[in-house]
Amino acid sequence: MSDMQSCCAFREGDKKLVGVAVASINYKGDHVRSETRIRPRQGKAIFDIMTLKSCVFAKARPYEVLEIDHFFRVHVFCVDAEHQGKGIGTALINCCVSRARMLLAPACIVALSSATDRSIARRLEFTLLAEVPYNGFKVYDDEKGSFEYPFEHLEQKGTLACMAFTIPLPPVRLSRQSLLPILKKKAKKGRTKGKSK
């Protein structure tokens, strides 16, 4: 978890957590599948949900489509049902985009199932990369000791959408000192080519 970044929203007064977004930088070639770390008693449904998220990212092909080698991936994005419609979701997504920009990631990418969340993302100029349908996931609830729908306020049938916000990065300015090894290498190659003729 040390490589994870989080943005949190707290209620005024009692400081109760009412919204959270958890993200990390994903690099091309990283193939760590979080569903392999699921506890066996959590059941097949949570494994299927994690696999669905992996599936929508695989279908989206962000590295190829956006021509990037890394991006800021939002793994978790949720707002307490009682606090929705108050701008918290927008603030959390904006926080993720700001964090991505600070970390010089060329894109911020999130998987969303809620129509409201997608509307927020579109308003913030996220574009749709891919969609995958799903139907009826139940997850083991430790407190109830049974399998329950994880999101009571959402329909259990729909689509999971992978959406991206591209971030124009500032041009890299190289100092003369940092260019010296590159220039020396090019000069050496030029001399070598001249000798071989």
TrEMBL record:
Residues 1-168 form the N-acetyltransferase domain. It holds the Pfam family Acetyltransf_1. Gene3D superfamilies: 3.40.630.30. InterPro entries: Acyl_CoA_acyltransferase, GNAT_dom. GO terms for molecular function: acyltransferase activity, transferring groups other than amino-acyl groups. SUPFAM superfamilies: Acyl-CoA N-acyltransferases (Nat) (SSF55729). This is N-acetyltransferase domain-containing protein. It comes from Odynerus spinipes.
